[in-house]
Design goal:
Oligomer: single chain
Low-confidence stretches: 1-41, 43-73
Shape: globular
Mean pLDDT: 80
Distance between the termini: 13 Å
Number of helices: 5
Number of strands: 10
Strand content: 25-35%
Length: 274
């Protein structure tokens, strides 16, 4: 838990030794769903070598089963490039608080270029076929969702309330995700609290899940009292309703894009004190 993936069939004699795949294109869902809040979080350059795919014989050959998918073999994943880009992303994010309070357009473009590069090197292009890679706890390190202007002021995020970690716990057995947003309150009575949002998810494709908001709560009561007047604004930012395309995932990093065009980058976390 808060972020549509066939070329004409070619005779064997015309198959080239290899082809370089293009960057994946995101498609927006046209399926109507219940109204939800806008701008909700769903917890995700330099030139490099792309993975090379070798075409298998076409299914139109005599004896081939037309119902079978055309298989492809991929060259080994370019982990050296992946590691380098991950490091570059973390360096680029230094000092920007996950982008939640905005960043220069040049820096945002730089990060999104690196995101596209990682997506093109995705070692697990069909993540929902192996949910074990998605389960567990993740920590948000970047999002194109922002809290700016009057919304930031109304929520007290300029002065006495600061944002802590954004965590998401995914339970693949129950099909549930829990988003936890931590807050620290300064002043005469220093304390911390959190917004907890529970949602359910269903697989809709090999790389996409549909997410439905269930419940939310703020603890402790002192924090709830501070947010009560503008709770709709707060929930409107973090409500995960919609769909999420998982465009990259490995053992330590996950990238997602939602139906509103937002990008989310999360790192796997060992956090247990929630």
């Amino acid at each position: 838990m808060a972020t549509k993936l066939l070329h004409p069939q070619t005779p064997t004699s015309h198959v080239l030794p290899f082809s370089i795949p293009s960057l994946p294109k995101m498609s927006r869902s046209h399926t109507q769903r219940p109204p939800s809040f806008n701008n909700s979080i769903q917890f995700f350059l330099p030139k490099s070598n792309f993975a090379i795919k070798v075409a298998e014989p076409s299914s139109n050959l005599v004896g081939a089963n037309e119902d079978e998918d055309i298989a492809t073999e991929e060259s080994p994943v370019d982990y050296s490039t992946i590691t380098r880009v991950k490091t570059d992303i973390n360096k680029a994010l230094e000092g920007y608080n996950r982008g939640i309070f905005g960043m220069p357009s040049e820096k945002k473009s730089e990060i999104e270029d690196m995101v596209k590069l990682l997506e093109s090197l995705n070692p697990n292009p069909h993540p929902t076929l192996d949910l074990d890679k998605l389960g567990g706890c993740w920590k948000l390190i970047y999002s194109t969702i922002t809290i700016l202007g009057s919304r930031r002021t109304k929520l007290g995020l300029r002065d006495f309330i600061s944002l802590g970690d954004f965590l998401q716990i995914i339970d693949i057995v129950k099909g549930k995700a829990v988003n936890v947003i931590m807050f620290n309150v300064r002043g005469l009575n220093l304390f911390s609290g959190k917004l907890i949002i529970e949602a359910s998810f269903k697989i809709s494709s090999k790389s996409r899940v549909d997410i439905s908001y269930n419940t939310s709560t703020i603890i402790p009561d002192q924090l709830m009292n501070m947010f009560r007047k503008n709770y709709d604004i707060l929930l409107g930012i973090f409500n995960p309703d919609g769909w999420l395309e998982i465009t990259y995932v490995d053992d330590t990093l996950r990238i997602g894009r939602d139906d509103k065009g937002n990008i989310f980058i999360l790192e796997r976390s060992k956090e247990t004190n929630l």
